[in-house]
Structures are given as C-alpha cells and as structure tokens.
Amino acid sequence: MDGTLVEFFRTAPIPPEVLSPSLGLIILLPLLGAFVCGVFGKWLGRANVHLVACSAIAGAFVLSLLAFWATSDAAGGRVVSMANPFGLDRDTIRYAIAHDYGTWFAAGDFRVNFGLLVDHLSGILLLIITGVGFLIHLYSTSYMEHDDGYWRFFAYLNLFVAAMLTLVMADNLVLLFVGWEGVGMASYLLIGFWYTDSAKAWAGRKAFVTNRIGDFAFLIATFLLILTVGAFNRQADARDYNAAGSSRARYEQGISQKGPVTFKGLEKLALALPQGSGGAVSLATPIESGPLSGYTFGGVMTATMLLFLLGAAGKSAQLPLYVWLPDAMAGPTPVSALIHAATMVTAGVYLFCRMSSLLVLSPTAMATIAIVGALTSLLAALIAFAQDDIKKVLAYSTVSQLGIMFMGVGMGVFWAAAMHLMTHAFFKACLFLGAGSVMHGNGDETDIKKLGGLWKEMKWTHATFLISTLAITGIFPIMSGFFSKDAIFHGVHHNHLHGLEWVSTFVYVLGLLITASTAFYMSRVYLLTFTGKRSPEAKLAHAHESAWHMTLPLVILAFLAFATFVYALPLMPRSGGGTQPVFENFLSPVLRPAEAVARAAETVKLDTSSPSVGDYAFAWMWALLGGGAAAFAYLKFFPSRVGQPVPAFARAVRRTALNKFYVDELYEFILIRPVKFVAFILFRVVDALVIDTVLVRGTAYVTEKVGLGLRRLQTGDAQAYAAIMALAILGGAVYALLQVLS
Amino acid sequence: MNIELVLFGVFAVMTLLSAGLVITARSPINSAMALVSTFFFLAGIYVLLWAHTVAVIQVLVYAGAIMVLFLFVIMLLNLGDAPHRGKPTVTRLLGGASAAGLLAVLAVTLGRMDAQPARLDAQGQATFGTLAAIGQSIFTTWLLPFEAVSLLLLVAMVGAVVVAKSRI
Amino acid sequence: MVPITYYLLLAAALFCMGMFGVLVRTNALVVFMCVELMLNAVNLTFLAFARMHGNGLGHVSAFFVIAVAAAEAAIGLAIVIAVFRSRGTVNVDDIRTMKH
Q1: Is there a contact between A716 and C98 if contact means CB atoms under 8 Å apart?
Q2: A447 in helix, strand or coil?
Q3: Where does the record place the NADH-Ubiquinone oxidoreductase (complex I) chain 5 N-terminal domain (chain A) (predicted)?
Q4: pLDDT bucket at B111, cuts 50 / 70 / 90
Q5: Percent of chain B at pLDDT above 70?
Q6: Per-residue pLDDT tens over the stretch B154-166
Q7: Do A726 and C23 lie within an 8 Å CB cutoff?
Q8: CB of B35 within 8 A of CB of C37?
Q9: Which residue numbers in chain C have pLDDT < 70?
C-alpha cells in the first residue's frame, strides 16, 4: 500500500488536543436538536423539524468521525496518548482522547466529574450510534410522514441519541448511569409514542418498570464499587499499587481529582487485586472495616458483577428481565431499529466490555453471565419459531443475539462480543427497517402469514432483507454476522474459566443449537414474507416500494452488514507472534488490562487461536441445517399439507411457543400477584387505616371539634376582641406588678 | 402650694372631666366637642411640662385639623342624634372592668414611684422643648423616621381617597 | 415643682378612660375619638418622661405620634365613610363581618 495513503489515514484532520475540548459537542448537538424540535417543533413545520433533527445527528456523526479518527492519530509515528491520572508518569493511555469538564458534584471526599472519554471501544459505538442513528432519522422522515406527532417523535429520537452518546462517552460509572437512565426514559417515551392506544402505553410502562429493577441493581453495584475502592485504599500497601502501575500518592490524587468510580481508576483496582503482586490486598483478603467488613474483595467483586448483570439484563433484555423487549415493538418501527436493536439494548454488553478488567476477577460472575446469555438466547430463539408478527420475531431475534453477545462477554471474548454488537447493529437495524418498509408498503400489516410474494413488488426491500437474513443466520458464510458469531463461539469453546471448565462446553453446545434455531426462524420469516404467492388475506392487493428516504438507509446498512466481515479476518500481527483478527487488534488498547488481570489472577484461560477452516465449516453446517429445515418446512412440507388437520402434539408445541412459553404468565403468577397482594395489604392497613383514618381524618376530627368549641368565641364583634385583649393586658400588667413587688 | 401645682390641678381635672364627657355623651357631636376641650387642656399640661412646641402642634394639628375632620365626617354622615342602641354585652363590661383594673394597677405602680423633673442648667433651660431643639433632632438624628412618616402620610392620603370614594 | 408621678397618673387615667370608651361605645366615630384619647395619654407619658430626664427625645416621639395619629384618623374616617355607604350605619354592633 502506498505510504502516503497510510500516513493520510494516520493523521487526524483535527489534532486530538484541539478536538478533545469539543467532545461535549457530540452530546450537545442532538440535545439541542431535541430541544428545538420539542419546544418549537409545532411551529417549525414538518420539513424544518426533519432538517433540524437530521442535521443535529449528522453533525454529531461528523464530530464522532473526527473524534474516532483522532483516537487513532499516529501522525509522524507518535501515537496519540494522554497521561493516566491514576498511574505513574510513565503510564499513559494510548489511542484515546478525553476531556474533563470539571466537577459535576462532590460530597465529602466523594466526587463525580463530567468527564468524557473516547477510545477505540466507545469510538466504534459513537460511529454506530450517530451513523445508524442518522440513517434511521432519514428513514423516519418518510416513515413518519403521515403522523401528526412528528415533532415529538424527532425530539424524543434526538434525546435518545444524546443520552446514548452520554452513556458511551462517560468516563465514570455515575455519568454512564445518567446516560443509562436517559436512554431508558427516551425508550419509554418512544415505546408509548402512540400513547392514546392503551396497550402501547402499557408496553412503555412495562419496559420502564422492568428496567427500574435492573437500574436498582446497577445503583447498588455502583455503591459496592465505591465502598470497595475505599476499602482498597485503606488496606493496600506499596506492592499492590506497584502491581497496578501506580503509587498510593498517585492513586489517591487521582481519586481526589476524578472521583472513585472512573473506569481508569477501577482498572487500576482490578490490576492490583490478583494474588500475584504479593501485596497486602488480594481477592481472598477480607475487608477490615466499613459496611463490607468481613467479606473478601473477591466475594464483593462477584456480588458487584452479578448486580451489574441484573442491571445489564434489564437494559439488554436478558433472563429474567427480557419480557419488556418484545412488547416494546409497540413503538414505531424506526424506534425498534435504533433503540431496541442497534444501540440501547447493547448497553449491557458495552458496560461489561468497559469494565472487562473487573469482570475477569470473578469466574463465577462470568459463568453466570455466559449461562444467562446462552439460556436467554436459546429461549428467545425457540419463542421466535412460532411468532407470526414480523416485528415480534425480530424482537425475539434481538434478545437471542444479545444473549450471544452476553455469552461472549461471559467467556472473556470481549472483542468478539463488541464486534457482534457492531455487526448486529447493522444487520438487525436493516432487518427492522426492512420490516418497517414492508409494513409501510402493505397497509401496516405485520402478520407474516398474510404477506408473501413481496420479492417482485419491493425489490430493494427484498434484496436488503435477504442480505441481512443471510448475515444473521450465516447460511451464506461470507457475511459479517457469520464471522462475528463464530468468533464468539470459537472463543467460548476455547476459553476456560478457572474451576468452571464445564461451562465452556455447555455454552458452546447451546451456541450450536442457537445457530441452527436462528437460521430456522429467520429463514421462515424471509420465506413467508418475500417468497411464494401473495397471501389472499393481505390488506392491500399490491404492495408498493418505499421512497428513497427509506430504501437508501436499507442499502447502506445491508452493505455494511456484508462488508464488516473483514474485521474478523486474522490479518494483523499478534504481539507474541502469529496473527490476530483485525477487530481484536483494534480493541486491544482497551482490553489489554483485562487480559493482564486474567493472566495474573488465573481466573480465565484466554485462548488466542484463530478458528480453522474446519471450525468454520462445522459452524456453517449448523446454520445450513437450520436454514434447510426452514426451507423444507415452508417451501415443501406445509404448502403440500394445506387443508389437512394438524397433529395435536404439534398444535400444543406451537401454542406453547406462541404464548412465549408462558413466561409472562409465570411472572404474573409468582411476582406480580404477590406484589399486588402485598400492595393491597399495605393499601388497606397503611394507607386506608393509618394514614387516611387515623392521621388525616383524625387530625381533621380533632381540629373540627376544637374549632367548633372556639367558634363560640368568634362573635365577629371587634370590641369583644378588644375586650379580650384588654383582659390580657391587665393580666400582663398584674403579673409584672407582682414580679416587681416580690 | 405653688402656682404650677394649682394650674396642673385645674388642667388635670378639666382634662379628665372632658374625657369623661367624650366617652359618655350620647351624641357624637358632643363627644367631639368634649374631645376638643380635652385637647386644649392637655396642651396646657404640655406647657407645664415645658413642651411648648408640642403643645402648639397639639392645638394646631389635633384640635385644629383632626377634630375638624371628625366633625366634617359626623355632619357628612348626618349622625346628629343616633339612638343609642344595644346593651353592652358581658365581654364589653368585662373589658370596661379590665380598664378600671388596669388603672388600679398603674396607680399602685406609680404610687410607689417618686419621679421629679430634671434640674436643668441655664443652657438646658434655654433650649429644652424649643422648636429649634426639636427640629435639630428631627432633621439630623431622626431624618429617616421623619421621611418614613412623610411617606406614611402620603400613603394615608392616597388610601383615604381610595377607600372613601365610591368610584375613582 | 409638680412631681412627674402626677403627670403619669393623669396619663394613666386618661389612657384607661380611652380604653374604656373603645370597649363600651358602639358608635364607630366615638370609638375613634377614644383612640385619640389613648394616643394623647401616650403622648403625655412621653413628654412627662422627657421632662423627667431633661431629654428632648420624648418631644420627637410625641411629634411622630401626632403624625401617625393624623394618618390613622384620615384612614379610619375614610373606612367609616365606606362602611356607612355600604351598610348605612356606623354602629360596630352591626358590623360583624369579621365572623366570616
């Protein structure tokens, strides 16, 4: 390759030190867009709102691109780097830019800064959020063209993007939580966008309440981390700090400047905790004082990570909190594509990648994450078998794919999980937008049984949907989805958690089943929707292809869904010899501390081999199996049996799957009913009896009686009042006289 | 028995008599006229206290301005001889009794007190209670209260107009 | 020399008479006059104490009291007129709106 071209790409157009103070603009632009659209949208008119909303995201995208470029800046061979506030002077953070806007709030020795950090991990997410976000905004201008709430819609959408950008750019947990809550709120607003339909409003509420459970766990985990940092600071000695590449003075200075919950500070904590350093503190050391006294650092870390898992399960729709995501499809389809497929639901995966160094301290938590992910994935895939609503299938598919990412995170293949996050953002957004296009062109029909034969009428939608289906299923292997999923399964198979070796095999076997299931239900959706003959039950006789606003994003996303497979190819040299995938190499500045911790703590044995051709072929076989079964069933088996009675067994299975294995009903029975019962008791005893009767009415009763008694004194006669006053004066005078006399 | 004590006795008795008339007269006109006489005798008492200036103001402002206002209102409302309706209620009588009681208490208290006028030097005698001395005090030390009072009068004027006029 | 005590006794008597009048008279105008009596009693006390201490401050106070009394009279009488206009009476027995 030409040397000057390489030099061009290595030189950021805007130098990092110039750009970093403007990082806040990336958040501010969508926020401003949300403000303008939300407050003035009604008066601005449709076209202006589109312009404002789209250009805000486009501006954020350009800034993100510049920021991303700046993180890779290596002009003149000097890699962009900055001093680590928690490390020694020689300790620099490479391939990252950051800016601290000062203290957000401080209480005692606790403080939180408004600090933004862009490294390769958050840079990738920035590009996905603003890039895919822009495409979806563009798509929405056409999709929402007949809706009166367009200005509300775009305000919410911009608000969501701003919150999501806060989430990924935050350099500490508390600021991340702000974004975390912000996306939750935007999601709630957008799911219930058509709030006049009570079912849709309920869906929004369900999402909000379910997320609340996860957020509660997230908060407790944050508090635990703060306590752990405090305990570590009290108990650690010089060798501990030394193992983390820091010193007590430097670490405490960092905490007093940046606060205890910054990711860089937590990374140092993780580096210091493994046994190998020989210091006073290790995973097995009990905490001496404070609320956590008696527990070991390792135990607290496991509890913290499990709580974070619950938090992430809420946001990323994993067991047991996944139930809100399928209902979230009540929102407009672009919302499903942006929030409930590409960005927000991956926040949990991002969180664990961001805190990978802490996560690898606890094999128990990792195994739990992997198993939860695998079970969620399989369950969602099975439910997707029988769903007839195209958006519901895609929703369960999203749950399933997120489960795969959690498997990757749980088994320590963070780079593959992040890569699957990226490829999933492309193909799933494309699938959702394709589904939206199908609905748009068929009178809002979502039942795939009532579609069919669309490949002739909706050429662009069909082509892009096909490419994305191939990408997610891996039936045609030269696709991004195949490679990123296989990278996860390969890592899952070869990484081993210390003391929990069986998890690898267990999860891997489940993974193969998931591959086949995914291929089956996605092929089913594709076949029923686009091939065959048009269903006689269709709402419209002829579908119409959507406008270019809608097809252009589809084409771009489909291209990306295809092209990003190159990142999984082992093209880059590995530092210890051999080659490694491009994406792993790319994320290594972020994930290196996690690898170091895993090595030192001996909690995870990380495998660095690349899949062989045989491995790929094996994975491909499973995908083909699923796809072939679907093709057989829906092209040959069912069409030939039309009109014949269905066996009772098959009916029962189908009904169970259709009813989502009765998980919602189970929750209703074991959770919601008891909670409602307790609430009812509380209402009767506390509200009705104590508060209403005793406190409220009792107070009123006493006041009333006293008032009735006193009313006799109130004659309205001013002179009577004056007479009483005179009596009082006399009393005072007599008292004073007696005091003087005695 | 000096002339000052005689004068005080005369003025004091006349003041109390007039005041008694104020509170007992049936007609408001009579009350008002008795009040004027009370003010005049009080002015005499003030003079005995070497408060010449205040005595003059008392005659000018009270007996002159305020009482004219009262008479004007009485005549405006044509209250000549309004029948004395209603009996004093228990509370009122109680109030009256407490007024008497208060007087008794005060009398007891004052009876135990032996207060004599200050003995002033020649310079003090020349300036005490003069317009110059009061003016000096008001326009230097007490300028702010003075201005506040002027503001109060202004507000009272506007307020009186607003309250009394049926249509503005 | 008349003892200051005499003046104070006179003021006390005047004040209590005024107070008595305020409490028992029903004509609002007379009530006002009695208030003026009480104010004058206070003025007398001020002046008596000024004489007792040889201090001109009492005179200044009396001056202010007179000014405030003037304002009070103006407002009070305006209220009497307004009440009379709306109710046709100045009898405080008939004016019991403070009950509500």
Answers
A1: yes
A2: strand
A3: 104-154
A4: confident
A5: 90
A6: 999 999 888 887 7
A7: yes
A8: yes
A9: 97-100
CB A479 within 8 A of CB A519: no
CB of A567 within 8 A of CB of A581?
yes
- ipTM of the complex, rounded to two decimals: 0.89
Rounded Cα–Cα distance for residues A301 and A358 (Å): 8
* Alpha carbons within 13 A on the beta-carbon side of A489: 24
**pLDDT confidence of residue A646:** 63
What dihedral angle (degrees, nearest 10) is formed by the CA atoms of A343, A346, A352, A355?
Answer: 10
Closest by CA position to A521, among listed A375, A629, A377: A629
**B45 at the C interface (CB within 8 A)?**
yes
Beta strands per DSSP E along A318-463: none
Residue type, A423: T
Sequence-ordered list of residues with C-beta below 8 angstroms from that of A693, at least 6 positions apart, any chain: none
Confidence at residue B168, expressed as pLDDT on a 0 to 100 scale:
57
CA dihedral A353, A359, A365, A371 (to 10 degrees): 30
Residue A377 carries which side chain, given as an amino acid letter?
Answer: S
Q: What is the pLDDT of residues B67-79, one digit of tens each?
A: 888 888 888 887 6
> What residues of chain A lie within 8 A of the CB of C97, using their CB?
716
- Retrieve residue A128's tokens: 């996905």
Domain segments of chain A as ranges: 386-646, 659-708, 712-742
Full-model pTM: 0.68
- How many CB pairs below 8 A link A and C? 28
Contact A722 C22 (CB under 8 A): yes
What are A331's two structure tokens?
């929102």
For chain C, which domains are there?
Answer: 4-89 (1.10.287.3510)
- Find all residues with CB under 8 Å of B80, minimum gap 6, and list them: B27, B29
Q: How far apart are CA B40 and CA A44, in angstroms?
A: 80
Which tokens is A165 given?
Answer: 């950008």
A299-335 pLDDT tens trace: 999 999 999 999 999 888 887 888 888 888 888 888 8
List pLDDT tens digits, range B130-157: 888 888 889 998 899 999 999 999 999 9
Contact in structure between A20 and A98 (CB atoms under 8 Å):
yes
Does C19 contact chain A (CB < 8 Å)? yes
DSSP letters, A655-680, are HHHHTGGGHHHHHIIIIIHHHHHHHH
Long-range pairs for A289-292: beta carbons < 8 A, 24 or more residues apart: A289/A231, A289/A234, A290/A227, A290/A230, A290/A231, A290/A234, A291/A227, A292/A224, A292/A227, A292/A228, A292/A231
State whether B45 and C62 contact (CB < 8 Å). Answer: no
Q: What is the average pLDDT value for chain A, to the nearest integer?
A: 85
Burial of residue B111, with CB atoms counted within 10 A of its CB: 0-12 exposed, 13-18 middle, 19 or more buried = exposed
pLDDT at A6 over 80: no
pLDDT at residue A441 greater than cutoff 70: yes
